[in-house]
User: Which sequence fits this backbone?
């Protein structure tokens, strides 16, 4: 699994995170929008549009923040499928 820290503000999940297991389990996530930029070491998941924000304070912090926010995306999908 690799995380590309592109230094741009808007990307798609599949163009940012190389994670074959995630892509296989949740192919519908591939087009989800991501906003990435230098920040205070935080992130967010916005379920209105499935957008993930990754605002690391260092490039090394980007991947853990992204994975944490993707967990929220997976949790949302699982809750929605139970309804």
Assistant:
């Amino acid at each position: 699994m690799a995380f590309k820290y592109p230094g741009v503000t808007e990307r798609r999940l599949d163009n940012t995170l190389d994670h074959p297991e995630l892509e296989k389990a949740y192919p519908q996530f591939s087009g989800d929008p991501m906003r990435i930029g230098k920040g205070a070491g935080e992130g967010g998941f916005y379920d209105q549009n499935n957008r993930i924000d990754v605002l690391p304070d260092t490039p090394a912090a980007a991947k853990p923040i992204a994975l944490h926010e993707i967990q929220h995306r997976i949790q949302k999908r699982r809750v929605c499928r139970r309804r």
